[in-house]
Amino acid sequence: MYKIVGFSLLVILVAMVVPVASSIDSDAGLKQYGMAELSLKDVTGLVIFENVIHNEVLDYGTGFMLNQTFNDADGVDVAEANQIDHICVTDAATVVVLDTEKIADFIGDASTILGSNGNGCKTTAFVVTATTATSATLNFAADDTSFANDSTVTGIGICTGAGSDNDVCETINIGLLFAVVDTSDVTVGTGESVDITYTLTLD
Amino acid sequence: MKLTSDKLLVIGVSIAIIGAFFYMPWEDSYFGLILDGITEPEWTEILPRNVVKNSIIFEIINDENGQCLSTADRLDGIVDHAYFVRADEFIKDIKYDRDAETMIIQCNKIPDNQARLHIWYVLEEAPKDSTKYKYFITESDILTNQIEP
User: Fold this and answer.
1) Does some domain include residue A10?
2) How many domains does chain A have?
3) Which of A9, A16, A184 is the closest to B24 by Cβ?
4) Under 8 Å CB-to-CB from B99, ≥6 apart: which residues?
5) Of B32, B54, B127, the CB nearest to A23
6) Taking the model in full, what pTM does it have?
7) pLDDT tens readout for residues B73-93
8) What letters, b where the CB count within 10 A reaches 16 and e where it falls short, cover B67-96?
9) How far off is chain A from B140, nearest CA to CA, in Å?
10) ipTM of the complex
11) In the structure, what pLDDT confidence band is assigned to residue A104 with cuts at 50, 70 and 90?
């Protein structure tokens, strides 16, 4: 019996000292992530639903950051005159999140930006620190203020701004889609609204 | 007492295990991997980008022998999300009725007639504690950003 116990303990010891060949989630190394916080409020202002979820910074987004930061010897100090300052909500049936995603993939067509009058996109200033950029908390209300009653928010786009509000996040030649968030589907009923805040962290 | 070679093996390996436990980074070993699979994750150590946090307000409908039938409006938006890989387990845990939009929770876990259900889960692509989830209940005015991981 001692032999069996001894060999069992030996197996445990081997399992304890042999490392697993995989990356470990640790605090070491560069951290970069964006997070969207979405809160659904009822008519009284009570928060009835929350969703805090990460984003995918797209290739266009990382390219934008690098181009704006580093001199690529093209003779232009800053390639893109517009900064990231718009948040848009979409009701696209499927929010596809791929590194190489283009605006057209996210939006589908113009109608999937909620709010035909352009209020499905809102402008925000960001509070920028050494490691984070945080938007203001933007309120998107139903009852046609932002979009029609019982519209369903399925995702969020973070964009640069140019042209009218409704053009942002839609047209690759006007707006640039920086990041996409595939949120939980949230139906916004009469008198209800969603608050959205976006934070990007580089560390 | 005469120590046989088998007893020596047990004693020696036991000492080695104790030493390894205190002095070696076993968390990154196969043993650590197995333990990760069965233990509650240390939520403070999981990068925020790998955790999705949700909450809904709910109200108690009735109390049946300490099991509270409660509203579960908008819970479908959480459990239907593609990132919530183990949503089916969670649905069974709380006996979620999708059609009636209700769930059943132990009454002694609910602080008031109206409370908030929080559901956190780790993304599948997270290198550690992948797909683990937890749910807990607070007063209705306690929002996600007010809770320490």
Assistant:
1) no
2) 1
3) A16
4) none
5) B127
6) 0.81
7) 999 999 999 999 999 999 999
8) ebbbbbebbbbbbebebbbebeebbeebeb
9) 9
10) 0.79
11) low
- Does B47 lie at the interface with A, CB-CB under 8 angstroms? yes
Q: Which two tokens stand for residue B137?
A: 């209940």
Q: How far, in Å, CA of A168 to CA of A123, rounded? A: 10
Domain ranges of chain B: 5-37, 46-146
Strands (E), B1-149: 51-64, 67-71, 102-106, 114-122, 133-139
The per-residue pLDDT for range A28-74, each reduced to its tens digit, is 455 678 899 999 999 999 999 999 998 877 777 888 888 888 877 76
Q: Which residue shows structure tokens 């970069």?
A: A32
Host domain of residue A72: 31-202
- Asked if B135 contacts B115 with a C-beta cutoff of 8 angstroms, the reply is no
Q: Are strands A177-181 and A155-160 parallel, antiparallel or unpaired?
A: antiparallel
Distance from CA of A46 to the nearest CA of B (A): 9
Q: Where are the beta strands (DSSP E) in chain A?
A: 32-41, 47-54, 56-57, 84-90, 121-123, 126-128, 132-135, 138-141, 151-153, 155-160, 177-181, 186-188, 193-202
Check CB contact of A2 with chain B, cutoff 8 Å: yes
What does the pLDDT look like over B127-148, one tens digit per residue? 888 899 999 999 999 999 898 7
Within a 13 Å sphere around the CA of A71, how many CA atoms are in the beta-carbon half? Answer: 3
B38 vs chain A: nearest CA distance in angstroms?
16
